[in-house]
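## retry 2 of 3
previous attempt timed out at serialization; input unchanged, resubmitting
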Amino acid sequence: MSKSPKHLIQRNFTWYARLGIPEDVRHSFNGKREFIKSLGTQDKAIALITSKPLIANWQDQIRIARGNPSVIVSTAINIKYDTESQSRVNPETDMSDADYYAEDIAEGLNPEQQEIFYFHLNQENTPFNFFVDDFLKYSYENTATAKDAKRNIELFTAHCPVLEKVDHQCVMRWMQNETRSKTTVGKCKNFLNRYWKYLQSKGVISQDINPFANVELPKSLRKKEDREPFTDDEIKFVHTKIEENNQPELDAAFQIAIYTGARISEIVSLTTDDIQDIDHVSCFVIRESKTKAGIRTIPIHDNLKELVNQLSTASSDNYLISNIKTTSGKKGKTDFITKRFKRIIRNQCQLPTTKVFHSLRNTVSTKLEAAGVPENIAADIIGHNKRTMTYGLYSGGTSTQQKYDAIRKVQYGK
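## retry succeeded, writing output
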């Protein structure tokens, strides 16, 4: 049996990152003996990459608990890139405001801390992801997109830790070591390109070079597997297995998904207040979504009305699907459902990797098309942008009755 890489352990086929907390600083972490977090993958190569920024962050927390060297490093880097204070120079001493500030900081440090401070002040040793939080606040309003951008920037940081050393060759080496799909790597490159341009706009790096521009993705990257819709027989089989496993929260989310095409994040965000009568039709009101088109109302299918009434009556926390135990908000609820769904369809139903919870959106779209529902009505139900100017730009959307008549055509047999 091969030995697991350092800081990685495997449980139930899923890789976890772990790092022991030294005894002398455990009091700073409520007596906790170790950090541990699921990496959400069964692929060791991906786990290795994903774990690096996580381990680095934990190690950083331990160092902070022992004397705040990270605060020293951050202060040094911020002074180094404070162009405004650098530009204000005293002609008599030839020292800038930044120089005076650095001297004041250094005087309050011990010799070891001073060495760390001046090393990061004077050397080209800036962590690649040092400015990522400022970049996210400046660039993204959508929380999910911001998290995706941060995750990808930190993954790249694991390959190329030092900002000043990132060049075309460094980017090419990163791409050649990637194990993710071509589509995913391309998306990551777009985040990195935008981050680099942000750093250029702040004057952190030169305007002359962008190592992420005009870089073609390697042909060796695998193609992303297209999601496939479930067949009627698969829907029935999966539902049977969910019931056998006695998972009521998953059962409710699954049934809502197959009769709405809603995303799992949209479903777990539904509250009892989001069940409303609109134009005399009972509807789900989707208030939180990945896209602007995702903010919509979906008529409640006749086959869901009894379930929705039961869920509303039984709710103890105002959420339609109540009592999903998690400390991570909507993301935690999403993970709760998708992980349990994945275990059932992989381990018990033996379905291919092209079928995931998100494939239920494909399934409903396929049902609507097979029933002859016009694409503009289907788009308003699923939450997709409309392609034409007439419907996409000028139309106020289809009526609730049109959507209700369409959604009733989604059927899976007896």
